[in-house]
Amino acid sequence: MSRIAGRTALVTGGASGIGEAIVAGLAAAGARIAVADVDLAGAERVAAQVRAEARVEAIAVKLDVRDPAEWTRAADEVEQAFGKIHIFCCNAGISGGRGKIEERSLDDLDMAWSVNARGMYVGVKELLPRIRAHGEGGHIVITASMMGLFVTPGVGIYTMSKYAATALGESLYLELKGTDINVSLLCPGVVNTQLTSNNQKFMPSQHNNASSAAIKAFLAASADPADIGRFVTKGIEENRFYLITHPEYRGLIKERFDMILDSIGDPASPDKVDDLGFYAVTYRS
User: Fold this and answer.
1) Which of 157, 162, 163, 38 is nearest to 108 (CA)?
2) Is 249 annotated in the active site?
3) 148 DSSP 8-state letter
4) Active-site residue (options: 158, 173, 242, 279)
5) How many CA atoms lie within 13 A of 14 on its CB side?
6) Residue 213 — very low, low, confident or very high, per pLDDT cuts 50/70/90?
7) Right CATH number for 8-252 from 3.40.1410.10, 3.40.50.720, 3.90.76.10, 3.30.200.20?
8) What's the whole-model pTM score?
9) Which sequence spans correspond to the domains of the chain?
10) CB of 152 closer than 8 Å to CB of 184
């Protein structure tokens, strides 16, 4: 989508962090903005700031991404305000906390999954038909994570949900190729946001609530959300699928995929390869 100006963008998790930065980036490019968040007061603050600084139309919408009925209400509210939705940034997420798999509770898993995976799926189910219906084209951005590309110890619940978000984005990309709806998959590394501290609000066990001075200092020294917002906006304009920040993680990504490739056995026979024709898809063409 080379032209963002004049289009309507719905950004979930828009009241803070990466979501707020995406809002700012799209507003600077001239989009009308719907800031959606479970924190309505925060969303209203961001919408007011956008109206004042970018001089574009902006509204705040309350949205708990776990609830399908709220998705329908929120989408209706945005369409009533702006007519059509063109850009959908499915960004809302929680960190899931830290701890070994055996130490975590099913309630923790359910919460992380309901926001980071199921919530995104429900959002796509609600918004994709609306974007297709108006026939003006659109763009969907799925926010996964670097943890949707490789694993590190102690964040298994979060990584499970973000692998699912990666799969959602990649599935949409292949299913929508050749249409006027484009897809991007955002995989950020560590960014200075409230993602980890939000555990205190959302995780049933409040596992690792990130209140320590060391964690706060680590986040303060990490990437600026504003840079990520500009990166996403440019990715939409250039219609790029993978939006991978933080080049310092290149080695970890390569290590994982090298390990997978090195583990493949003897090449299949030509007959077997032919049998796999259904799966012969490409991410490049």
Assistant:
1) 157
2) no
3) G
4) 158
5) 33
6) low
7) 3.40.50.720
8) 0.87
9) 8-252
10) no
